Write a sequence for this structure.
C-alpha cells in the first residue's frame, strides 16, 4: 500500500452512504486509515473525508466510483496525498510569510511554497533567503488589470493549487476572485466590534476592546465575507497599548492562517455554501 489518497464528498443524507463508499474502497483493496463524517441536521447533507491507501491507480479507482456517486447524488473528489503547490502574496508586513516559511521548512505545513508575489520590494530578501522566487508585481489603479493578469499567468506557469494572501493589501477584482474560487485563502484582522480602514489596532485601543483576533477565509467577490476556515481570538485588557495589540494580533493572524492553509492542503475543508465543514 504505497499510494495514499483522500476522498472528499458531500451529498443528501440517507441510509447506506457509508456502506456504499467503504464497500467500493474495499473492493479495490483500499486500506482506510482515517474516516470522518458530519451529518448536517439543518441542510440534510452528509459531508465525508476518508484517507486511505491502495495499489490501484487512482484514476481507475475514481472511474469505478462514478456509479456509487451517481446513485447518491454525490459531489466528490479523489486527491492524491502530496504537498499542495502554494503561491504566497504579500505587501509589506512579513509576519505571516515568515511563519509560513518556517512551517514549510519544518515540514508541518503540508504545502509546498513555490513563490512569493508582492506589490512592494520590502520582503524580497525574506523570500529569497528561503530559496523562494520573488515576483514584484506593482499595482496602481491604472495597472491593476495587467497586474492581476500577470498573477493568474504565474498561477498557471507555476502549476499553483493554492494562493495565500498573507497580508496582501490589495483588493482583488471580482474576475480574479472567481478565477481563484476555492483555491485562495485570505487572512483578515477581525475585532469585536470590527474596525475598517487604517490602523485597526489603534481603533481597537481607542474603543477599549477585550478581544482581538483574526479570520482566515476563502476569497470571494464579497470582500472579506468568504467562507470562514479558521479564527483565532486572544483576550486582552486595558494594559495593552496599540503596539502590544499589534503584537498579539500578528500572532493571531499567523496562527489562523497557517492552520487554514494546512487544513486546506490536507483536504480537511469542505465548502458548504457560505460555510465550511472542517475535519480537524
Amino acid at each position: 500500500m504505497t499510494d495514499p489518497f483522500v476522498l472528499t464528498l458531500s451529498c443528501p443524507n440517507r441510509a447506506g452512504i457509508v456502506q456504499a463508499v467503504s464497500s467500493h474502497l474495499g473492493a479495490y483493496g483500499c486500506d482506510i486509515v482515517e474516516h470522518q463524517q458530519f451529518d448536517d441536521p439543518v441542510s440534510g447533507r452528509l459531508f465525508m473525508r476518508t484517507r486511505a491507501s491502495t495499489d490501484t491507480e487512482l484514476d481507475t479507482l475514481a472511474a469505478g466510483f462514478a456509479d456509487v456517486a451517481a446513485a447518491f447524488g454525490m459531489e466528490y473528489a479523489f486527491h492524491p496525498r502530496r504537498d499542495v503547490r502554494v503561491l504566497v502574496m504579500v505587501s509589506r508586513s512579513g509576519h505571516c510569510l515568515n511563519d509560513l516559511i518556517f512551517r514549510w521548512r519544518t515540514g508541518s505545513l503540508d504545502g509546498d511554497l513555490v513563490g512569493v508575489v508582492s506589490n512592494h520590494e520590502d520582503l524580497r530578501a525574506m523570500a529569497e533567503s528561503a530559496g523562494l522566487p520573488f515576483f514584484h508585481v506593482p499595482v496602481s489603479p491604472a495597472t491593476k488589470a495587467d497586474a492581476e493578469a500577470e498573477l493568474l499567468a504565474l498561477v498557471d506557469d507555476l502549476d499553483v493549487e493554492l494562493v495565500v494572501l498573507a497580508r496582501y493589501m490589495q483588493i482583488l477584482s471580482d474576475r480574479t476572485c472567481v478565477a481563484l474560487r476555492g483555491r485562495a485563502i485570505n487572512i483578515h484582522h477581525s475585532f469585536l466590534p470590527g474596525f475598517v480602514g487604517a490602523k485597526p489596532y489603534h481603533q481597537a485601543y481607542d474603543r477599549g476592546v477585550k478581544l482581538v483576533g483574526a479570520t482566515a477565509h476563502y476569497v470571494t467577490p464579497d470582500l472579506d465575507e468568504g467562507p470562514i476556515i479558521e479564527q483565532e481570538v486572544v483576550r486582552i485588557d486595558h494594559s495593552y497599548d496599540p503596539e502590544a495589540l499589534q503584537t498579539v494580533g500578528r500572532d493571531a493572524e499567523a496562527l489562523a492562517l497557517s492552520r487554514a492553509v494546512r487544513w486546506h492542503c490536507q483536504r480537511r475543508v469542505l465548502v458548504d455554501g457560505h460555510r465550511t465543514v472542517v475535519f480537524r
